[in-house]
Design a protein that fits this description.
By secondary structure, this protein is α+β, with helices and mostly antiparallel strands. It is about 45% helix and about 15% strand. It has 7 helices and 4 strands; from the N terminus they run H-E-E-H-H-E-H-E-H-H-H.
Length: about 170
């Protein structure tokens, strides 16, 4: 399967080096009992964080390589804002990881394997993408509004807080 390439992005030898590191982390993860995924976060030409998938190792369904790398990069940099960073992932990010990448402010994503490649080795998350397209009442996982009037209290507290750190 040929990957689509964004023609406006010039891929450099440095980009390939960082992707190879993400792939190395994925290979190492498999050897150590983890999933076949690795990710590195780069800022100013330097790797800030490099992690692999630890879902089965840590018994944590959120311990995907990209999320682990975001957590490590944020700890190292002392911030939740990763603007100016790029992530190299050995596989196209799943919906959870993609959301985390957006929330972190990472400015570019490079990936190796596609989500279709992942599905061929039994890592299929297309069902999540597909379910998100459906109206809430038609989704496979019930999503039920509850106690909105009471929950709004937290938002009012946040809105009125004068010393908050916005994000």
């Amino acid at each position: 399967m040929k990957q689509e390439v964004n023609k406006s992005v010039k891929i450099t030898e440095e980009d390939k080096r960082f992707m190879r590191e993400a792939i190395r982390l994925a290979d190492e993860s498999v050897e150590q009992g983890g999933g076949p995924f690795g990710a590195v976060i780069v800022r100013d030409g330097e790797i800030v964080a490099g992690c692999s998938n630890r879902v089965t190792v840590d018994n944590d369904p959120t311990a995907h390589a990209e999320v682990n790398a975001i957590r490590e990069a944020c700890r190292k940099l002392g911030t939740f804002d990763l603007k100016g960073c790029t992530i190299y992932a050995s596989c196209e990010p799943c919906p959870m990881c993609l959301g985390a990448i957006y929330w972190a402010g990472i400015e570019r994503i490079y990936y190796g394997n596609t989500r279709k490649d992942a599905a061929e080795v039994d890592f299929a998350d297309d069902y999540i993408y597909e379910d998100m397209e459906r109206p809430m009442e038609e989704r496979k996982l019930p999503i039920v509004p509850l106690l909105r009037d009471e929950a709004l209290h937290s938002f009012r507290l946040w809105k009125d807080k004068t010393d908050k750190i916005t994000y």
